[in-house]
């Protein structure tokens, strides 16, 4: 799902129309439709990335793919803070930045490449657990990154998980070539504990993707 | 309404007869008079218009598989955020303060204080039950689509409780569904 610049053709990769960028919501412009950018990581409009769950990754994406947008946005944010909104806006920004992720920090390593992605950044040991829906209310849980732990046998792990949760569990190859465990059922909440106790994977190295 | 919506929640999808389409266009013009110059762009006459039925009697009006509008039962028609981002002036707007953004993006309905505090703003007087586009302090594009539960005058004077029902917001399932099959 991490397509670039969701709805716009490639040549539209420049900054959004000047009038739209100059505040006031772009209402004065006559030629509709406006071209809107959506973040390549979370799919939100870039100015709302800080409220998503992948703010860090978003920032890295924006730096790599459309720095103009980032610059425009920063300019606006800067103006807003000095301008009408005053201290309140600054407070809000700080609060947002104080969360577990720090959207304003540049050059940080991207942990999660895609929302549905399973692979951690090169060399790092990290297990990523995600949940995908399968027709309506059925789920599969996908565990990626187990192969970054040398003393985990991925096939054995799949078997143990299947036994523990009484459901189908198999090893499959992700498009990127990495191996991942696919579990038929929603065990997202219980899995980290199990990985910790049975496979001795430290909790700190397990990340759970909450969305989709 | 669409918090956990996905393609799989569409129970049936059917072609729309041209007479029904005409009726729908008329209704759109009535509810969004500002959209008149762009209506042909938004909903082209030669497009393949379908209605996708979802749970709770919600229907999505799609053109070539792209959801454009939604409607619950026979109620008001609302544009999806992706449409609203392209044609921002088709609906009246209200603005919430910065602090409310994260709540709105979690699906919370919007309290009156969100509009009456310093960062909030009510742009046009509206009746209860009106469709409104929710903007956010310091942001350019729309944050959510909602329906007022009381008139804007009441929102300002009562200033308590929920003022706007949050129907569709950035990051919800409908926003994530760019296209149906
Ligand atoms: Zn993003």
Automatic annotation (TrEMBL), chain A:
Family, according to the entry, reads as follows: Belongs to the DENR family.
PANTHER family annotated for this entry?
A: DENSITY-REGULATED PROTEIN, DENSITY-REGULATED PROTEIN HOMOLOG
Q: Which Pfam families match?
A: DENR_N (PF21023), SUI1 (PF01253)
**Gene3D superfamilies noted in UniProt:** SUI1-like domain
Q: Which organism is it from?
A: Ectocarpus siliculosus (Brown alga)
- CDD domains per record: DENR_C
Do you know which SUPFAM superfamilies this protein is assigned to? eIF1-like (SSF55159)
Q: So which residues are the signal peptide here?
A: none
The record, for InterPro entries, names:
DENR/SUI1_TIF, DENR_C, DENR_N, SUI1, SUI1_dom_sf
Question: Which biological process, per GO, is one annotated for this protein?
Answer: translation reinitiation
Region described as Disordered: 1-27, 83-108
Q: What is this protein called?
A: RNA binding protein Tma22, putative
Molecular function GO terms recorded: mRNA binding; translation initiation factor activity
- Start and end residues of each SUI1 domain: 127-199
TrEMBL record, chain B:
Q: Which SMART domains match?
A: PUA
Matching entries from Gene3D superfamilies are given as: 3.10.400.20
Its GO biological process annotations read: formation of translation preinitiation complex
- Key word Cell wall biogenesis/degradation present in the record? no
Key words of the record: Cytoplasm
User: Do you know which NCBIfam families this protein is assigned to?
Assistant: unchar_dom_2 (TIGR00451)
| PANTHER family recorded | MALIGNANT T-CELL-AMPLIFIED SEQUENCE 1 (PTHR22798:SF0), MCT-1 PROTEIN (PTHR22798)
The protein in question is named PUA domain-containing protein
Source species of the chain = Ectocarpus siliculosus
């Amino acid at each position: 799902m991490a397509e670039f610049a969701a709805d716009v053709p490639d040549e539209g990769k420049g900054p959004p129309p000047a009038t739209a960028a100059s505040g006031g919501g772009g209402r004065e412009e006559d030629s509709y439709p406006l071209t809107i950018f959506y973040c390549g990581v979370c799919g939100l409009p870039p100015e709302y990335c800080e409220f998503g769950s992948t703010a860090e990754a978003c920032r890295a994406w924006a730096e790599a793919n459309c720095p103009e947008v980032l610059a425009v946005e920063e300019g606006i944010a800067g103006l807003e803070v000095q301008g009408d909104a005053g201290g309140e806006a600054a407070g809000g920004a700080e609060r947002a930045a104080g969360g577990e992720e720090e959207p304003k920090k540049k050059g940080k390593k991207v942990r999660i490449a895609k929302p549905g992605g399973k692979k951690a950044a090169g060399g790092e040991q990290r297990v990523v657990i995600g949940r995908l829906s399968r027709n309506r209310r059925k789920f599969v849980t996908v565990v990626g990154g187990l192969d970054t732990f040398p003393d985990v046998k991925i096939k054995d792990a799949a078997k143990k998980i299947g036994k523990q949760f009484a459901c189908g569990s198999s090893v499959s190859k992700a498009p990127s070539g990495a191996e991942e465990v696919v579990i038929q059922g929603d065990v997202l909440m219980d899995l980290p504990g199990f990985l910790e106790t049975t496979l001795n994977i430290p909790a700190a190295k397990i990340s759970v993707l909450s969305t989709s | 309404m669409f918090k956990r919506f996905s393609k799989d929640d569409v129970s049936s999808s059917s072609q729309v007869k041209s007479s029904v389409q005409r009726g729908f266009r008329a209704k759109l013009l009535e509810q969004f008079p500002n959209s008149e110059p762009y209506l042909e762009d938004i909903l082209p006459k030669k497009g393949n218009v379908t209605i996708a039925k979802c749970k709770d009697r919600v229907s999505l009006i799609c053109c070539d598989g792209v959801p454009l509008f939604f409607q619950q039962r026979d109620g008001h028609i609302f544009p999806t955020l992706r449409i609203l981002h392209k044609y921002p002036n088709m609906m009246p707007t209200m603005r919430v303060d910065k602090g409310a953004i994260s709540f709105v993006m979690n699906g919370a309905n919007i309290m009156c204080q969100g509009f009456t505090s310093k960062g909030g703003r009510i742009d046009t007087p509206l009746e209860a039950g009106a469709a409104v586009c929710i903007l956010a302090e310091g942001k350019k594009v729309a944050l959510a689509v909602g329906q007022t539960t009381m008139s804007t005058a009441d929102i300002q004077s009562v200033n308590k409780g929920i003022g706007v029902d949050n129907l569709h917001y950035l990051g919800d399932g409908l926003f994530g569904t760019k296209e149906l099959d």
